[in-house]
Amino acid sequence: MKNIQQMPDGYLNRTPLFQFILLSCLFPLWGAAASLNDILITQFKSVFTLSDFASALVQSAFYGGYFLIAIPASLVIKKTSYKVAILIGLTLYIVGCSMFYPASHMATYTMFLAAIFSIAIGLSFLETAANTYSSMIGHKDYATLRLNISQTFYPVGAIAGILLGKYLIFQEGASLNEQMVGMTPEQIHDFKLAMLEHTLQPYKYLIFVLITVTILFLLTQFPKCKVVNSDSTKSEVKVTDTLKYLAGNSAFKKGIIAQFLYVGMQVAVWSFTIRLALNLSSMNERDASNFMIYSFIGFFIGKFVANFLMTRFKSDAVLMWYSVLGVVTLGYTAFVQDFSAVYAAIFASVLFGPCWATIYASVLNTVKQEHREVAGAVVVMSIIGAAVVPAIHGYVSDALGSLQLAFIVPLFCFAYVGYYFFGKIKNNQ
Questions:
Q1: How far apart are CA 373 and CA 75, in angstroms?
Q2: What single-letter DSSP state applies at residue 384?
Q3: Per the domain annotation, does 152 fall within a domain?
Q4: Could you give the C-alpha distances from 279 to 162, 175, 236, 282, 393, in angstroms and in order?
Q5: Which of 100, 114, 93, 269 is nearest to 169 (CA)?
Q6: What mean pLDDT do residues 273-297 have?
Q7: SS3 state at 6
Q8: Which InterPro entries does its entry note (predicted)?
Q9: CA 251 – CA 413 distance, rounded (Å)
Q10: Is 295 contained in some domain?
Q11: In angstroms, rounded to a whole number, what is the distance separating the alpha carbons of residues 192 and 80?
Q12: Element containing residue 196 per DSSP (H, E)
């Protein structure tokens, strides 16, 4: 890292390329875990005979882990470094994947939820560290751009997760429900056990990848990117003081709500896209999973288009218009009663592309430097929206008797995101 200097505010004079690439490689790792949840929801729905609300608890377990661990992860960063927090996260991720060995043989829904929760604990460390670190590891003027570039790797991992699920969890032939028609109770029991054993396969491959990435991080030197306190006599800022400061920061709180709803609507749409395709056609789970691949390709394209637009227009304006289109698109998904609704859900993924990174950077910009580690953790905690909104989506689906109409839930979330960026534009005029 020759000729790279750290500024007093924690930013660097330029970005160390190899370290930034390695850091960005973490983003597809949690993308793969998140997209595998969409596969598991569909598999568990049939195998455990769950309601839409109960099947959405996969996301509640996953993102609940983020919520509980984000603040402890930020404290680890404050006391040690971003690198240490990342290594802890990778180790816990490996432990969580390993729990699929007993879960696939015990064949209980609660054991699978425990394994998913364990993975989420590791990912909370990774996201809390990597999102803020990506914005810090270079010149301050390009913080949002760096985070958007790193986030561009996310859909690569998401597509990999869907492909692993498609070919290793889902099987050929008719849908699971159709295959179980005419089976005896004993045959159904054996069939379900066989289907659950398939859920282990993608996590075996993930463990090998995670071990490789962990070794690379251990062997690579990373800059601290910590604020240099010019007053040596000044005491360290306490977490309680930071939380009080954030509680009184109205701009920060509005951004947290926007991030909460954005993550919730994204995960809700992705959780039920496969199910929507199954409901509106006669295809099986493996074929229906193709539409999630298309969704993540669209998500990837949406990021690139947004990155280009944000070099020419203000990011707030870009996100506001993405949100307007998102409301229209999800309205089409909810109310048009034919298979084109699935393609509308896919186009919604294009519009999700720039949201997380832009909101994240926008929220952190409202916070003083000395509060950034904990503030970043609170933004990551807003991921709890992905535990809440999909569950509401599932509940509304059960109540209305229509999974498709329940897409009005993410529609209202996108409307608030648009309102948030519209407010930012007005305040900056």
A1: 8
A2: G
A3: yes
A4: 19, 11, 56, 8, 16
A5: 100
A6: 90
A7: strand
A8: Lfuc_symporter_FucP, MFS, MFS_trans_sf, MFS_TsgA-like
A9: 18
A10: yes
A11: 46
A12: helix 185-198
Per DSSP, the chain holds a count of helices (H) and strands (E) of 22, 0
8 A C-beta contact, residue 362 and residue 255: yes
Which residue bears the tokens 């870009």?
A: 318
Mean pLDDT, residues 324-351: 95
The Cα 282–Cα 276 span in angstroms is 11
Tokens of 71: 């603040």
Query: For position 353, which CATH number holds?
Result: 1.20.1250.20
Which residue has 């997760």 as its token pair? 161
Q: Which amino acid is at 233?
A: T
Tell me, yes or no, whether 10 lies in a domain: no
Is 8 contained in some domain? no
Which range of residues forms the domain containing residue 295?
A: 17-225+238-428
The number of CA neighbours under 13 Å toward the Cβ of 114 is 13
Distance CA 191, CA 284 (A): 16
Residue 233, φ and ψ in degrees, nearest 5: -90, -10
Helical residues (DSSP H) of 80-142, grouped into ranges: 82-98, 100-106, 109-136
The per-residue DSSP string of 120-137 comes to HHHHHHHHHHHHHHHHHS
Nearest-CA neighbor of 328 among 348, 355, 314? 348
- And the tokens for 164? 């692993």
Say if CB 118 and CB 95 are below 8 A apart.
yes
- Within a 10 A sphere around the Cβ of 409, how many other Cβ atoms? 24
d(CA 4, CA 1): 6
- Written as six digits, the tokens of 397 are 């689906």
Question: For 17-53, how does the pLDDT look when each residue is reduced to its tens digit (9 = 90+)?
Answer: 899 999 999 999 988 998 898 888 888 887 887 788 8
Q: Considering the chain, what is the average pLDDT of its residues?
A: 86
pTM of the full structure: 0.78
Question: How many CB atoms within 10 Å of residue 114?
Answer: 16
| Total domains, the chain | 1
